[in-house]
Design goal:
The complex is a heterodimer of chains A (211) and B (674). Chain A has 211 residues and is of the alpha/beta class. Chain A is 30% helix and 23% strand. Chain B has 674 residues and is α+β, with helices and mostly antiparallel strands. In chain B, helix 15 crosses helix 16. The chains are: A alpha/beta (211), B alpha+beta (674). Chains A and B meet through strand 2, helix 4 and helix 7 of A and helix 13, helix 19 and helix 23 of B. Chain A: GO terms for molecular function: GTP binding; GTPase activity.
Chain lengths: 211, 674
């Protein structure tokens, strides 16, 4: 399928916060509580529409365990957006946000759009991090913030799309040189013609994952 | 001392632990480090610093060190680091010239250095670890006469050094911008590295270059240029040996053996293998050892073993306008050597025939060979895996094994009791335990739950898995628990069907593969480095491609190596592959040859589609479930034979899954390092 733009996303955060479930909810619209833990990285993709333009999101779902950080860091390269996820029922996953953010700031493009997601908001009775704390952290660090639930799908669609909309706006505002793929954006057919406007290698090799 | 750092998740966070691991596994080198033109050998390079008696420990024994001279030189305002081993002063006969040249660091520019980690313990030798932008690192450089501080001070005079905020012993190189805008070059993103275009590059072992090699390279260089000028892709048409190589069909059956006997020798005789391409990165062309061409010609008429079962690995989609460099081990699309056809799995009768009357394995090699070529019938795995994993000794009798099992059962119960006896009150004050238990609880319910044996709520096998992993994290508290371990344990428990037996088999496996789970990922980096060396040896054009496309860190093979292809094959196939690898029949590092085999199968697609790192990673990920096991194992066997001694020499000593040389302790004592 052709797209105007392709955005590379990366999903980061502690192990078990629901990164893979968020991805699956977004790409397949289903919640699968039983799935294998992520080793290395997994990929997902979906087409969305912003401003009447088809945009393909290529999403990298990373392993969360501390030991794999040195590998995970190599995945940040060329990401246009990041979903930084914590689990509202586990305080420590919130406490580790600063270190994830530090990684992202160090290894990703400075213009990368970061969405902070407090996941598992369906488990409000076990809440260990208040919404205000999430908001406050996001504000302090210039992130977009949402609480979401991969289980009920609440705000999942919104989180991915709002991130894309922010990136799209940055393109409109000329923040990115879209011909430079290190920003995590590829211009496809129908996108703003740039020096490399014809470059659309991913449509043919994307495999079956963009359904 | 680390216990007070409550933020840290695991005891293996300890820098000391990491360091001790790093020492033990002989660590890494940058594969292309030796191939740059060496400014230190030029007249105009300015010598900045020279330090004698700086050594590398290829094994965990300091007595087996390789001593050499560390130098900093400067040319065109770029600082270079080199370390050259002394000639003929190896302290141990086990270490050959080859080892020494393997470790040589030839003029690495600091633009490619990401960080320097220093270790200046009060006891023992000081050392530094130089980490490159690619994420790879050189093995620790031990300063036998001290002077790490002085070394760093001098480096600091010439490049920008900034102390890492995370670790005061780590100095980030070229970290000259604000934290938000650090240059790619100072981090792990090699994309911004300067490319030494137009420079001649030399083979890694150029440090020990001899006249013969120089001549060979020159000859080949001439031939290459003429081929390139004529625009021919299949340079083999120029190979005069081609016309001589019509051979009789009856020789076909000898090809494999012939190749086995000759390739190693050929490869070492003809150093031109691989060295040619490095001069012509965009148009790699190869010189073929004469006899190999003959083999290829013979095979031309042979029925090719069919492995192109799935489309993912087929080459046909490659557009014609991209000139994919030919595979040096192929001739007219027919691989030069190939492995034996797979045999049916070994059954009970056959196994029993390999035992003496009291149950000893008469000849372990015969058993390992049999398993290597055919695997094991499932019902028999429970009896054979403990041998392969090293839990049972091959020369043990039935009675001895029975006794071992009962002793180990009690020992397991004792170990398990250690965490089972932790009261809720005690757990409150035991963060490390709670964290580990929490992680394990979360992960066992995310391991192979689609597989019948582990599916459903309150599955007893899942509980066993949790108990084994938690017990292991007490048995080996330093290593603890890391994701990926449950992937190894799952088939073991499924095969052994007994908690204690599974635990001890897992323990035996972790003796070899524990370094995969080191917090600093050193065991992984060592293997990825060895893989890069093997690809360089067995498919230089592909190696060059990875080099040009910033893929030399081989992170795209991370999952393959971390859990030995567990996620790439279906359950039964994974068990087949594991038992083949665990025989260590042709090589302890057979899994790396499996990696090469798969990569070579995809080489045309990778290069033809000009995959960058991201695309390649995604592509490799999506191979999962699409790799044919039997043909891959055959390819890997052929590659392993083909690489011969040169292959073995490409893999640094101590690379997992090699057992630690010191049988006494699983992990080197801290005192060795501190």
């Amino acid at each position: 399928m052709s797209y105007a733009y392709l955005f590379k996303y990366i999903i980061i955060g502690d192990t078990g916060v629901g990164k893979s479930c968020l991805l699956l909810q977004f790409t397949d619209k289903r919640f699968q509580p039983v799935h294998d833990l992520t080793i290395g990285v997994e990929f997902g993709a979906r087409m969305i529409t912003i401003d009447n333009k088809p945009i393909k999101l290529q999403i990298w779902d990373t392993a969360g365990q501390e030991s794999f950080r040195s590998i995970t860091r190599s995945y940040y390269r060329g990401a246009a957006g990041a979903l930084l996820v914590y689990d509202i029922t586990r305080r420590e996953t919130f406490n580790h946000l600063a270190s994830w953010l530090e990684d992202a700031r160090q290894h990703a493009n400075a213009n990368m759009t970061i969405m902070l997601i407090g996941n598992k908001c369906d488990l409000a009775h076990r809440r260990a991090v208040s919404t205000e704390e999430g908001e406050q952290f996001a504000k302090e660090h210039g992130l977009i913030f949402m609480e979401a639930s991969a289980k009920t799908a609440q705000n999942v669609e919104e989180a991915f799309i709002k991130t894309a909309a922010t990136i799209y706006k940055k393109i409109q505002d000329g923040v990115f040189d879209v011909s430079n793929e290190s920003y995590g954006i590829k211009v496809g057919y129908g996108g703003i013609p740039g020096p490399s406007g014809g470059r659309d290698g991913s449509t043919s090799q994307g495999g079956g994952c963009c359904g | 001392m680390s216990m007070e750092a409550s933020e840290l998740q695991d005891l293996s966070d300890d820098a000391d632990y990491a360091a001790s691991q790093q020492q033990g596994s002989a660590s890494m080198m940058r594969s292309d480090s030796g191939k740059r033109s060496s400014p230190s050998e030029h007249e105009d390079a300015e010598l900045i610093y020279l330090k004698d008696n700086v050594a590398i420990h290829p094994t965990q024994f300091a007595s087996e060190r390789i001593s050499g001279r560390l130098k900093l030189t400067k040319q065109d305002s770029v600082l270079f680091l080199s370390w050259i081993p002394y000639k003929g002063q190896t302290s141990n006969a086990k270490l050959s010239e080859k080892d020494r040249s393997l470790y040589t660091i030839t003029a690495v520019p600091f633009t490619e250095v990401r960080s320097i980690r220093r270790h200046t313990p009060t006891l023992g030798w000081q050392y530094v670890i130089v980490v490159l932008s690619s994420g790879l690192a050189f093995p620790p450089l031990y300063f036998y006469n001290g002077g790490v501080r002085e070394f760093l001070a001098i480096v600091k005079q010439h490049v920008f050094l900034a102390r890492s905020s995370e670790d005061p012993n780590v100095f980030i190189v070229n970290d000259f911008q604000s934290p938000l805008q650090r240059t790619l070059s100072s981090l792990e993103l090699p994309s911004s590295l300067p490319v030494a275009s137009g420079q001649s590059v030399y083979p890694l072992d150029g440090g020990s270059s001899n006249e013969n090699q120089g001549r060979t390279s020159a000859d080949i260089g001439n031939r290459v240029s003429s081929v390139i000028q004529s625009g021919l892709r299949k340079h083999k048409n120029h190979d005069p040996t081609r016309d001589l190589s019509i051979h009789l069909l009856e020789k076909f059956s000898l090809v494999t053996k012939f190749a086995r006997d000759t390739t190693t020798q050929l490869f070492s005789e003809n150093n031109g293998f691989g060295s040619v391409d490095k001069r012509w990165n965009n148009q790699p062309v190869h010189s073929y050892p004469e006899k190999l061409s003959n083999i290829a010609e013979e095979k031309h008429n042979e029925i090719r073993h069919s492995y192109s079962e799935n489309d993912l690995l087929k080459d046909e989609e490659i557009s014609n306008d991209i000139d994919v460099p030919a595979d040096p081990l192929e001739f007219n699309n027919i691989s030069l050597v190939w492995g034996k056809p797979r045999q049916p799995p070994m059954g009970h009768k056959e196994f029993t025939a390999l035992l003496d009357s009291e149950g000893r394995v008469v000849e372990s090699k015969a058993l390992r060979e049999r398993v290597f070529y055919g695997g094991i019938e499932h019902q028999l795995r429970r009896e054979v895996w403990p041998f392969l994993l090293g839990y049972y000794a091959y020369d043990s009798t039935y009675a001895e094994r029975e006794y071992l099992r009962s002793v180990k059962r009690m020992e397991y119960a004792t170990l398990k009791q250690q965490w089972q006896s932790i009261s809720p009150e005690q757990a409150k004050r035991f963060t490390k335990y709670r964290e580990r238990k929490g992680l394990i609880d979360k992960d066992v319910v995310r391991t192979d739950r689609a597989f019948e044996y582990y599916e459903g709520d309150d599955n007893l096998h899942v509980n066993s898995m949790r108990d084994i992993l938690l017990t292991y994290s007490f048995y080996n508290f330093d290593l603890g628990y890391c994701q990926g371990m449950s992937d190894y344990l799952s088939p073991i428990l499924f095969v052994m069907e007994d908690e204690s037996e599974s635990f001890w088999c897992f323990v035996a496996l972790m003796e070899r593969l524990g370094p995969n789970f080191n917090r600093d990922q050193n065991g992984m980096h060592t293997q990825l480095f060895a893989l890069s060396k093997l690809v360089e040896l067995l498919d230089t054009p592909l190696h060059n491609y990875f080099k040009q496309n910033d893929c030399l860190n081989y992170f795209f093979c991370f999952r393959w190596i971390l859990i030995q292809f567990k996620r790439e094959f279906e359950y039964e196939k994974t068990m087949q592959l594991w038992e083949v690898m665990w025989t260590h029949y042709l090589s302890e590092h057979f899994h790396l040859y499996v990696c090469v085999a798969v990569l070579k199968r995809c080489r045309s697609k990778i290069m033809g589609e000009q995959m960058d790192f991201d695309t390649l990673l995604k592509f490799i990920n999506e191979l999962s479930g699409h790799i044919d096991l039997d043909s891959t194992v055959r390819d890997a066997e052929a590659l392993c034979i083909c690489a011969g001694e040169n292959g073995a020499a490409s893999i640094p000593p101590g690379t997992p899954p090699s057992l630690p040389l010191d049988d006494g302790t699983l992990y080197p004592q801290e005192d060795d390092v501190l």
